[in-house]
Structure formats: C-alpha cells, structure tokens
Amino acid sequence: MTDHPTIASPEASATPPQPSGDEPAIDSERADAFAAAHPVRPIPAQRPVDTRPICETPSASDFLNPVWKAVVEETRARGNDIHLPISVAYAERLCDAYPTADREVVLVATLLHDTGWAHVDESRILSEGFTGDWRKAQIRYEHEHQGCIVARRVLPGLGYAPEFVERITAIIEGHDTRHVAYSIEDALVRDADRAWRFDRAGIALASSWFGMDPATYADRLAAEIVPELITAAAVEMATADLARSNALLKTGVLR
Ligand SMILES: [Fe+2]
Ligand SMILES: [Fe+2]
C-alpha cells in the first residue's frame, strides 16, 4: 500500500519507528538500468488505455483463482479483500497497455503484494503504517517481508517454479519502502497499487485509514500520488477516476 508520507492521524504514535538497518539494500544497478531504458516519464502506453470505471472490467484472470483461494485468510486483513481484487483489475488494464510486460508476474505479484499485512501486529498498522514518515516505518518493512513469506509458502504448491517465485518476491520486497522500480513488471505493480485509490472504493477505504475526509484525501491524490505514477496509462486512468469520484462524492461542496 502506498500513500502520502506525512499525514497525521488520531492514532499517530509520538515517535514513528525507524528502519532497523536490516532492510534489503536498493539494487542501484537494476534501478539505473530500468531508468535508462525508460527515459520518458511517465512511460508512454504501448496500447490504448481503458479509462472506464474499474467495476466495468473486473479481473477476468481465472488462472489466479487458486492463488486467491490460497490467501483468503490474508485478504481479511487491512481491507485486502477490497484493495487486492481492485488492484488486480487495474493491473490487468496496465498489462493490456504495456503488453511487453510479463502479465503473469504482474498479476500474481499484485495479488500477493499486501498479504503480509495479515502477519504483522494489527494494532501497529494504522498507528505506524499510515502516519509520520510511513515509508520508513518498521511495520512497512515487516509487511513486505511477510508478504514474501506468503508467496514462498503458497506458490510452489500451485506449480510455480522457483525462478518465478523469486521474481514475485523481488517485487513484493520493497513495494512500499523502495523509491525506485527495477523492471516494467515492478512498475506496473506499483502503479496498480496506487491506481485503485482513485476509484470511489479506494477513496472510501483509504481516506479512513488516514483519518481524512474524502475531499482532503482526493486533493492529496491529485497533488501527491499522481506525480508518483510511473506509467502514462496509470496517470490516464487515475485522472479519469478522480474526476468521477470527485463528482460522485461531491467533494467540491463537502469541504
Ligand atoms: Fe503494501
Ligand atoms: Fe497495497
């Protein structure tokens, strides 16, 4: 999950935890290579982008059903049963717009990326994960690490090869705490993880996590999350979604 780093909430702890120093180091070589291969940002779409409301194109990837079934427990944590299916639907659209990306990697990584929230101390999720310098909050490193453990637990039994599992964990590890993308697949997962916020369901859920009213949260999305998007397809979808959500939620009046 990603969002603004400095939003305070009523649950804010006085001193947000700092990284322990055990976090995985950033692979600058990979990050630099990806940046050099994609000098134009946001990365132009390779195909037309579907900007209709996301509920019109729910995930059609039935091959993911065994993976979904394997993590039902994990979807019960921190709104994952809303966040993950919507994010996967966005990930499918992003894969349609960037067909050179490995679709299976993007979709499985998106599905699993936040399952680690189910294996961290729930009381610390809002108190540490959504306040202060949240990107550096220890709970965020922990949910990434636990998500990798979930991936290694469920994927081999479903027939996924070790190399595939490693590609998934490389994306999950650092999906919140790393500032740079390593690959187009990594970039699409990151954008799917952000794109869902612009839908009305994302605004409803995420604004409450941050203790903000919808209008203030929508303003933050426009000012701070749109610029973080890596792909032009995500920017296009987010812009269309935000306009619809602002109109529907009457954020121009309810502020
Ligand atoms: Fe996350
Ligand atoms: Fe997420």
What does this 3D model show about the protein?
The structure is a single chain. With 255 residues, the chain is mainly α. The protein has a single domain (40-46, 63-248), classed as Hypothetical protein af1432, CATH 1.10.3210.10. Helices cover 53% and strands 0% of the residues. It has helices at 28-37, 65-70, 72-75, 80-97, 103-112, 123-129, 138-154, 162-172, 184-195, 200-209, 214-225, 232-248. Helix 4 packs across helix 9 and helix 7 runs antiparallel to helix 8. The longest helix is centred in the middle third of the chain and has 18 residues, at 80-97. The two termini are 26 Å apart. Mean pLDDT is 91; it is low at 1-18. The structure holds fe (ii) ion (2 copies). Residues 1, 113-114, 143, 175-176 line the site of one fe (ii) ion.
